[in-house]
Amino acid sequence: MQSFEWVDAESVEQAVSLLGEGNERQPVVAKAGGMDLLDLMKNGVVAPRRVVNLKTIKGMDGVRFDAKQGLELGALVTLARLSRESEVRRRFVALADAAEHAATPQVRNAATIGGNLLQRPRCWYFRHDHFHQAGGDDVERVRAGQNQYHAIFDNQRTVMVHASTPATALVAYGASVELSGPGGKSRVVPLSEFLLPPDMNRPRDTVIAPNELLTRVRIPAPGAGTKAAYHKQGERESYDWPICDVAVVLQMEGKTIRQASIAMGWVAPTPRRATEAEKLLVGKTLDEGLARQVAQTAVKGATPLSKNAYKVPVLEAVIRRTVLAAAAA
Ligand SMILES: Cc1cc2nc3c(=O)[nH]c(=O)nc-3n(C[C@H](O)[C@H](O)[C@H](O)COP(=O)(O)OP(=O)(O)OC[C@H]3O[C@@H](n4cnc5c(N)ncnc54)[C@H](O)[C@@H]3O)c2cc1C
């Protein structure tokens, strides 16, 4: 690892200005919990000349709920806090559960929701300094290689999946992120447009500019009768990444589903909405048969790679169970 300068930022404005002094050859990077950044530095994927510590900025870790505006999370809210926060657990249970099941207790205590959304893919080709420095097209290497955990949808141009599991729940809830840039300017971007398909030859997998900070995550207020559930399916219960994860948000009137949102993570380059399957639910009362039909529809069109066809039936089962769990919540 090459040596670098460390700055404890005191404000968003100062951090933005420091980030703006970087360039492609000598990057200046932000650090929140540092859980991903330090791995990337140790693997030689990132070699910053300066690291800007965001944890010293006051007021970037608020959690606020308003019945009209919805939920506002400061980017520095940790995953541990997100999983425990009563307003989040009561009104956005799929997000609280996603945060609770991400990573390990130690990681969740340090990792922030902002850094989590900005982490780079866990693809072992991407993380390996040999492959990374060789550059070029990852897709062909991974197609011929160890692709057990890669994408089964939308995998023509990239086969990597976005790593964030809270992102799956946030996409199901229709969340947006607030980005703050130079001159006090900020913009709000829907999360589904913020996340880009991972690319080994690009320094980030989102639309954030090098001199912008992610300052807040916002989720619209849930309508009356909103129910939700989340499930992360791994090879083991803890300390592991998922095979897939699913978040379901239903708006119900009695037993009738009025609106449905199903987001699937770790199966496509970015969390994918099962839009055709969602339509099957609207205006209906859920039973086992409908849940099965919804799950079968959601996995239609999957194009698995040489070693990950097993993900299709796993995803189908997880969708069926999560839809049933949401309606019964
Ligand atoms: C064993 C293990 C298991 C894991 N399992 C999971 C899992 O199941 N699900 C999951 O989602 N994650 C998992 N993780 C990953 C972990 O959750 C992430 O590394 C962590 O959430 C990143 O957050 P951070 O605050 O530490 O980010 P950092 O490492 O500080 O930053 C990540 C990136 O974001 C940038 N950045 C950070 N904050 C900002 C900001 N506010 N504005 C602009 N740029 C910013 C940094 O420059 C860096 O590029 C796992 C990690 C480990 C080690």
TrEMBL record:
Coiled coil start-end: none
UniProt KW keywords: FAD, Flavoprotein
Highest rank taxon of the organism: Bacteria
Keyword Flavoprotein appears in the UniProt entry: yes
InterPro entries the record matches: CO_DH_flav_C, CO_DH_flav_C_dom_sf, Diverse_Substr_Oxidored, FAD-bd_PCMH, FAD-bd_PCMH-like_sf, FAD-bd_PCMH_sub1, FAD-bd_PCMH_sub2, Mopterin_DH_FAD-bd
Span of domain FAD-binding PCMH-type: 1-224
The protein's name: FAD binding domain-containing protein
Natural source organism: Hyalangium rubrum
